[in-house]
Amino acid sequence: MTLATPGTQAALQARYDNALMNTFGPPKRVFVRGEGAHLWDADGNRYTDLLAGLAVNALGHAHPQVIAAISAQLGTLGHVSNFFATPTQIALAEKLAGFVAANDPELPARVFFTNSGTEANEAAFKITRRTGRTRLIAMQGSFHGRSLGALALTSNPAYREPFEPLPGEVVFVPYGDADALAAVVDETVAAVVVEPIQGENGVVEPPSDYLAMARDLTAAAGALLWIDEVQTGIGRCGDWLASAASGVTGDIVTFAKGLGNGFPVGACVATGPAASLLGPGSHGTTFGGNPVAAAAGLAVIGIIERDGLLARVEAAGDRLADGILGLAHPGIAAVRGRGLLRGVVLTDPIAPAVADAALAAGFVINAPRPNVLRLAPPLIISDSDLDAFVAALPGLLEAT
Ligand SMILES: *Cc1c(COP(=O)(O)O)cnc(C)c1O
Fold it and tell me: What's the distance, CA 344 to chain centroid?
């Protein structure tokens, strides 16, 4: 059975323009197939995927065991309403709760499942309202999603201003600045929301003691610490949570992107008293916790564990960063990030043109900032694919 009429890129791109809202700009390619760390477009060209659907396809494309797990679940039980439960959903919740409460296994930790990172953050936002306080502290440069609640916490004025008024009482402070945070966190604050690494802002890391400082400040004020691991979690930075390196336990942790390997699944995990702030009737979802999505999440986690991918991510990330720095190219100022979430900082604001040149040369990357290239390849990417990109990079920089 043919699912869509095949066609050339040009024909498909024209049909896209007619049939889809122009929220993303014109598509740069139409992809028809993926396998491991590689993609093929409608004209048959092959690409190395160094973006992984934006930090989503952790195990690459068409992973046989993920396909098998999803298919088996779909063939057994594809969906029930949330008036009922499934063993798959319970097992994934236990896994995620265990990751979040790893420092303190006695701590209660409970999960609300969603279909996306935005929805996981929306659930978290509602949890903060149940504290009886309404003031929220977010970070300059933050990205938490595009629903009105998540947008209220996202600092980019270009995203926010066309949709104001947004849910209020959000104060933005400079990311990574402990003094600025200390100056605003008091007993009127419901929560501080922070990404361990700001991916959309160009892979920006705070000082290494920042999250621990945020933990101390929020604990002292009776405010919640809400860590958005939507982009950084599930192995992307070499650990289940990027915030694990700081030794902190969040009151709320949100996940999504890498969890389902492309099957939509997100989760809002809350610990301690925050785990009980939402009660019957206070929140809901039709699809969240769907057993097929949960099977995808369990398969991803199981394969990362079985194949020792957390250690592999660290080694591969170091190889990539060292390789890029080893080029000693005058157009490269720095490499930021951890594991396989990396930002290549350029000396000139040419990153979008470099990303286009990369695509033409068969490498999928993106430019979250005018001077930053983002690399977030599948966690299973080979050394030779990474080395091929590093070898091509000087030519891509010089082509623009
Ligand atoms: C992508 C992202 C989101 C939004 O997730 P969606 O699945 O696109 O709704 C939220 N927070 C962070 C840190 C993200 O990178």
Answer: 18
- How far apart are the CA of 272 and the centre of ligand 1, in A? 24
- Name, in order, each residue with C-beta under 8 angstroms of 270's C-beta and a sequence gap of 6 or more: 109, 110, 112, 124, 127, 251, 252, 253, 277, 278
Q: Using an 8 Å Cβ cutoff, are 242 and 236 in contact? A: yes
pLDDT at 280 > cutoff 90: yes
CB 324 within 8 Å of CB 390: yes
pTM for this entry: 0.97
- CA 255 – ligand 1 centroid, Å: 9
Model confidence band, residue 4 (pLDDT cutoffs 50, 70, 90) = low
Tokens 């149940």 sit at which residue?
A: 130
Neighbours of 279 (CB within 10 A): 8
- Cα separations (Å) of 346 from 330, 358, 364, 378, 395? 9, 15, 18, 23, 14
CA of 146 to the centre of ligand 1 (A): 8
**Atom 11, ligand 1: residue with shortest CA distance:** 144
- The model's pLDDT over 50-95, given as tens digits with 9 standing for 90+, comes to 999 999 999 999 999 999 999 999 999 999 999 999 999 999 999 9
Contact 231, 257 (CB under 8 A): yes
Q: What residues contact residue 317 under an 8 Å CB cut-off, 6+ apart?
A: 237, 238, 337, 338, 339, 340, 341, 342
- All domains of the chain, ordered by start, with CATH? 8-62+308-398 (3.90.1150.10), 69-306 (3.40.640.10)
- pLDDT score, position 5: 58
Report the residue among 231, 234, 253, 285 best suited for mutation to probe ligand 1: largest number of ligand atoms under 8 A from its CB.
Answer: 231
Q: What is the DSSP string of 77-106?
A: -----TTS--HHHHHHHHHHHHHHTTT-TT
Give the Å distance between the CA of 364 and the centre of ligand 1.
Answer: 19
For 249, other C-beta atoms within 10 Å of its C-beta total 21
Strand pairing report for 252-255 and 266-271 = antiparallel
